[in-house]
Design a protein that fits this description.
- The chain has helices at 15-20, 45-54, 68-77, 93-102, 149-162, 179-185, 194-197, 202-215; strands at residues 2-5, 28-33, 59-64, 82-86, 106-111, 129-133, 167-171, 189-192.
- It is α/β, with parallel strands linked by helices.
- The chain has a single domain (2-215), classed as Alpha-Beta Barrel (TIM Barrel).
- Strands 1-8-7-6-5-4-3-2 form an eight-stranded parallel sheet.
- Helix 3 (68-77) packs parallel to helix 4 and helix 6 runs parallel beside helix 8 (202-215).
- The longest helix is centred in the C-terminal third of the chain and has 14 residues, at 149-162.
- The structure holds D-xylitol-5-phosphate and zinc ion.
């Protein structure tokens, strides 16, 4: 059970100290948005490279960008220990996953709420993680979509059938009130932005979320 706080809800003018606030987390989730794949623009390669140099924990890069075929391996080279691309944006998802692994990072594939997982099940051997979005990607602080839980369970079941170790991540609206149902459905990596950075004590929020997830493990 791993917690990956999203720095999208952190103070962008003080990212180094914001990373220190969550040094007890397993990953730092970095939302890369290009203003095309999603209607929001955040940060790109130079910032990821700078963050990788100072972060006390590994970077979990979530690419909400067009043309991951071109860009994804560069995020691995920039220091992302995990790089997740959106399958909706990929020309050849298999090649994207291979290029991420080839650059030395864990390969993740994300699906938006309206995207089915089943057509991509045969990609599991190329993947280290599947991200099931529990909001429409683009912004922090949105409401959790409980209707995505059957998809989380479906991915977990597919991973079990295929064997191997593929993590199942949820992202969007994850908080102390919604994390239990995610864990019960089979998620094991939990992204939380506003629930962590909105808390007075971010590190304590991380520990609380991890405890809740462990207690409700699939
Ligand atoms: C949304 C991003 C999320 C976002 C989550 O597109 O992918 O990582 O930061 O924020 P919360 O936890 O506030 O929903
Ligand atoms: Zn994200």
């Amino acid at each position: 059970m791993q917690i990956s706080p999203s720095i999208l809800s952190a103070d962008f003018a003080n990212l180094e100290s914001e990373l220190r606030r969550i040094s007890n987390a397993d990953w730092a989730h970095v939302d890369v948005m290009d203003g095309h794949f999603v209607p929001n623009l955040t940060l790109g390669l130079p910032v990821v490279e700078a963050l990788a140099k100072v972060s006390p924990i590994p970077l979990d890069c979530h690419l909400m960008i067009d043309d991951p075929d071109r860009w994804a391996p560069q995020y691995a080279e920039a220091g992302g220990a995990s790089v997740t691309f959106h399958v909706e944006a990929a020309g050849n998802p298999r090649d994207v996953a291979r290029s991420i692994r080839g650059a030395g990072a864990r390969a993740g594939m994300a699906v938006k709420p309206g995207t089915a997982f089943a057509p991509y099940e045969d990609l599991l051997p190329e993947l280290d993680m599947v991200l099931v979005m529990t909001v429409e990607p683009g912004f922090g602080g949105q409401s959790f979509m409980a209707d995505q839980m059957p998809k989380v369970a479906e991915v977990r079941e597919a991973v079990r059938r295929h064997g191997g170790e593929v993590w199942v991540q949820v992202d969007g609206g994850v908080s102390a009130t919604t994390i239990e149902q995610c864990a019960e459905a089979g998620a094991d990596v939990f992204v939380a932005g506003s629930a962590v950075y909105g808390a007075q004590d971010a590190a304590q929020a991380v520990d609380e979320l991890r405890d809740l997830a462990r207690r409700h493990a699939h």
